[in-house]
Design goal:
Radius of gyration: 29 Å
Number of strands: 40
Strand order of the largest sheet: 8-7-11-5-4-13-16-15
Helix content: 10-25%
Largest sheet: 8 strands, mixed
Number of helices: 15
Shape: elongated
Distance between the termini: 17 Å
Amino acid sequence: MKITAILAAPALCLLAAPAALAQGIILPERPRREPPTPVLDRGAVPLEVRTLDVRTSIRGRVATTVVDQVFFNPSASELEGTYLFPLPEGAAVERFSMWVDGTEMAGELLDARRAREIYESIVRSRRDPALLEFLGTRLFRASIFPIPPRSEKRVKLSYSEVVTGDAGTVTWRFPLGNARHAPKPVGQASLVVEVLADRRLTAAFSPTHRVDVVRKDDRSVKVSWEEKGVLPDQDFTLILQEPSGELGFSFAAHHPSGEDGTFLLLLAPAVDADAKPIPRDVVLCLDTSGSMAGEKIEQARNALRHGVRSLNPGDRFAVVTFATEPRRFREALLEADAAGKEEALKWIDGIQAVGGTCIDDALQASLDYLRGGDPARPGVVLFLTDGLPTIGERDPALILKRAAEKAAPRVRLFAFGVGHDVNTHLLDRLAEDLRGARDYVAPKEDIELKVSALVSKTTHPVMTDVTLSVEGVAVHDLYPRRLPDLFRGSELSLLGRFGGSGPAVVRVKGNTPSGPREFVNEIDFPARTDESSFLGRLWATRRVGHLMDEIRLHGETLELKEEVVRLAKRYGILTPWTSYLVLENEEMLARFRRGESAAAGRGGGDGFGLVTGGKGGEDALRDDLLRRAGFRGASGEVPPDGRAPSEPPPPAGGGAWGPSAPDSGGGTPTPPGASTGEGAVRRSLEAKKLKEAEKAEDGTEEDREAGKDVLRRVEGKTFYLRGGVWTDAEAMEASAKDLPRIRLAPFSDEALALAAKDRLLARAMALGPVVVRIGSVVYEVRE
């Protein structure tokens, strides 16, 4: 049993600096007796972590961090504890203070050599590898006594350090991922960073967590994150970007040995409140068929009102409603001045919901407004419907073809589906083909809030028709595939892969209020770096989302399916098409991947795979394999016919992804290739979420719960629990079979010496028995 209660504490470092490690832990000891020297107790009850509150203030180039932690002693004994706080690697600490229950405590600072001796001694004596996380760091140590039984102990510490910038980019890291070794989830964790920069800030961006970013002015920003019951497995990263011109530009890369690297480009327009937006032509197109009657039509009217009021001086606009036929507010685009807006608002007041749904005619009428005109002037269509085409052209393929032929290159279409009786394939393809975006409003969601949020975000374009090229280094698989327009206050994050290394030139071109512009930046792609290890999974998440849309909208191929499975397994990405599955031998797993439904016999050894099939029995092949092999699925016993209890028989011929789970609201399940229904809307939103991922996070809460005991992530690698051993996904790939292997006994002098030299190996060993591939060598650390 582990007897450490582990808490994350912050580290601040530059983007190009080595990853820092700063994590506070309390090691319980036996209650004091004579003699008073405490003895480490291998059987002590672990302390629980009730709360973790981190507050960091960055003023100019000085960062002050305060960590407030509440521990709980669940035992019936009074304990003494040794508090260890590893200092950020390379940090020039100016001041270090610690308080316990409001009283300032004495402690000692130890250099890296003495700290290593203490870490290794504890690891050996407790047979607990978790402290290998800290090898190579300096250490602050203090004694805490008493820790009363069944009571809380509050520990608060602070330190200040000087930070410097690197080409206008500073990265702050909080090693939350080290909390993976805690005995229980942290009850409540919160983190707040307040920044007051010496210069203007163009962006504050976290690629790892969902944060709230509040700008106070052009030099100050507040970033916050909060979560309850959290046991995270990745570090928190915050990127602060200072402008290098009119277009802020940040670059980060991860390039492990022996494979292509992953890079992130972050583009942020300079924030200038006085800058004029690019004038637009905007068409607001609303479904007013009978199914929109009641609360929906009132919310939709309010969304239209917001759209009209948010138009900028210099914009032109039109309003189209459609039911049995399209109805135009005006026959030509109208200037968005006070008089034009007032007329439109009065017209909107009279909108009623009645009739059928003529989607094709409405699209043609909307696109007619945007034919011709200045090609540099953006044309925007906001299209909202709650139904299927019932009047006029009803073939989705022909509707798409006609829209593509009518739309000018400057058109961007934003599609909103209301409810579940919509054709998701049609709306998604419209948004994809016309370079916009799609979203869906659930039956109980507020139409006005969702539509208004997008309207507000897109009212101030600062660069359109954006293109990017890289010269000097070969890059590939960039996401998003089509670069969106840039708006004031927004950031564009571009992820891709690269081969080779060295200097390169990045060119960003687009149309701005002052005409066509080109921005040029010189960057250096590293030959090897272990920094920013989260980038690989973030890139893979976007690629999986792109592949999902390809399969949904254009049809499945074996190549696409295999690529989804490969990426899902290597990076531990949980999607509607993947689920955790414990298989008793590798042959069964291989047969599953080949799509064979023949019975697989039991064999020796345990295997773990992240394989196709969703929640609630979405993959009949998976269930068939489990039933024939006599296994129990993650959601319970598989019925004799291989189907989930509420699942209908698979259709003739099936689909490679298998039949879809029943809709959560009951009723008829949605087939996997269906374009309508609750399941179709859900799959569209899930693919959209992955394609637009800005954070290297898991999928749904259910997926995280399902995988918490069989999957871990360390330094960008994914480890699966196989036969009691944490096994690196890369070590399971076919390419690793012929690599040399180094076998080490846990807690041996050889293992600890290698861990002290290699940060990745040390953090992998902290999981326990482990198999990890590092470069061209596979290390096996187990009995």
